[in-house]
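explain this:

___
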Amino acid sequence: MSRDIDDASRATLGQEEGEAPWSMLRAHGERGALLFVDPSLDLLEVAGAVAEDRTEVVAAWMAADLLSRPTAAQMATDDDDTRQWTFVIVQPFVFVRGPQGS
């Protein structure tokens, strides 16, 4: 069901990858555009599946709770801004994993 993204797509998506503290990501969650990616998934593969509109793959990840929107409790977290979350942007979404060192 899943297929890897090609090298060109991975390079393009990699340009949208970065790290940020929770305080910079919270606004994306408040507008409903933040999605948590389970560590078992490749962050760029998830972003690529969304960019390529592979709805069956994305729906399967969501059904398995491998890709999820933050809960109200998660959004209310007052996270330490020294910890960095890895993110990838695929407009209008921001996919996150982290924080690093947790």
Summary: The first helix runs from residue 7 to 14. Helices lie at 7-14, 22-30, 43-51, 55-63, 72-75. The CA atoms of residues 35 and 69 lie 5 Å apart. Residues 17-71+83-97 form one domain.
